[in-house]
């Protein structure tokens, strides 16, 4: 594998196939323009954007890594596990993805039903599906519909008033568990990585408990190079990957050009004594 100095890796990004703002081909072109040489498309619970992204990567002359971001429930909370360097034809992985999509559809239908009642709207699910061009729209698409319908000022207002936990249209989803996610990723020959570990609002103790369970179930890596980490957050992640002997990964979690703080490829360097997850890539 090329070393980090010669390559620019961004192994966490999203397209219109889930909740990103750009089509897969547009995302790949933008990544190339930002100097990324190895990109992973990791849409939420779907592999649908990968064929288009691969064609664009070939045209742009960059390497595309098959990826996904699986939603899980663990200790009654939602977390996200990246699957990187996947064989997308793995039957077990495809079965898990299909089950996750069904869970997303059921959640979206229930969110729509609740919004029709709480916001005085009609056919919220159908309208969000149209915006997403998908039967499984995520909460950002419902927020966009609420904004278009004039029920909220902006997307943040939509989440605070209707869509976040504790509000009238929040719906918990019966995601797979941690072990099932890691098993599906490994069945596809991939590497299982805890996504944005600083983003769950966990204390040091709670994060270490999550990583203990992750490591015990065969998890491979921890995302440690991300935009906007504080010094305290970075120190905690450094402590964690060392203690649990995890590989490390780098990703912007790019969703939209409007999120200026999440630019593709603009990532801090990995610790020099860490093992990058991409050294284990085989596909």
TrEMBL record:
User: Which CDD domains did the record assign?
Assistant: PHP_HisPPase_AMP
| Any one Pfam family match given in the protein's UniProt record, by short name | PHP
Chain segments annotated as transmembrane = none
GO terms for molecular function, please?
5'-3' DNA exonuclease activity; 5'-3' RNA exonuclease activity
Fetch the Gene3D superfamilies from UniProt. 1.10.150.650, Metal-dependent hydrolases
Boundaries of every Polymerase/histidinol phosphatase N-terminal domain copy: 9-74
Q: Record's PANTHER family?
A: EXONUCLEASE (PTHR42924), POLYMERASE_HISTIDINOL PHOSPHATASE N-TERMINAL DOMAIN-CONTAINING PROTEIN (PTHR42924:SF3)
This chain belongs to the protein called Polymerase and histidinol phosphatase PHP
């Amino acid at each position: 594998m090329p070393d980090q100095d010669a390559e620019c890796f961004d192994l966490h990004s999203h397209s219109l196939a889930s909740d990103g703002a750009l089509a897969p081909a547009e995302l790949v072109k933008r990544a190339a323009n930002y100097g990324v040489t190895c990109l992973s498309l990791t849409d939420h619970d779907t592999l649908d954007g990968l064929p288009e992204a691969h064609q664009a990567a070939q045209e742009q002359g960059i390497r595309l890594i098959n990826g996904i971001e699986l939603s899980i429930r663990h200790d009654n909370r939602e977390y996200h596990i990246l699957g990187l360097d996947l064989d997308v034809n793995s039957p077990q992985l495809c079965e898990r993805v299909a089950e996750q999509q069904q869970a997303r559809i059921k959640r979206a239908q229930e969110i729509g039903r609740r919004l029709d009642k709480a916001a005085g709207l009609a056919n919220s699910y159908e309208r969000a599906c149209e915006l997403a061009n998908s039967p499984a729209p995520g909460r950002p698409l419902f927020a966009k519909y609420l904004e278009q319908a004039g029920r909220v000022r902006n997307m943040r207002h939509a989440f605070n008033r209707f869509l976040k936990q504790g509000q009238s249209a929040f719906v918990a989803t019966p995601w797979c568990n941690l072990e099932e996610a890691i098993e599906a990723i490994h069945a596809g020959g991939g590497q299982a990585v805890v996504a944005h570990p600083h983003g769950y609002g966990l204390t040091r103790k709670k994060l270490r408990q999550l990583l203990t369970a992750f490591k015990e179930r065969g998890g491979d890596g921890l995302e440690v190079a991300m935009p906007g980490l504080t010094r305290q957050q970075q120190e905690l992640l450094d402590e964690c990957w060392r203690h649990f002997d995890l590989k490390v990964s780098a990703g912007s979690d790019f969703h939209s050009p409007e999120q200026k703080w999440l630019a593709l490829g603009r990532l801090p360097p990995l610790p020099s004594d860490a093992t990058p997850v991409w050294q284990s890539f085989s596909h």
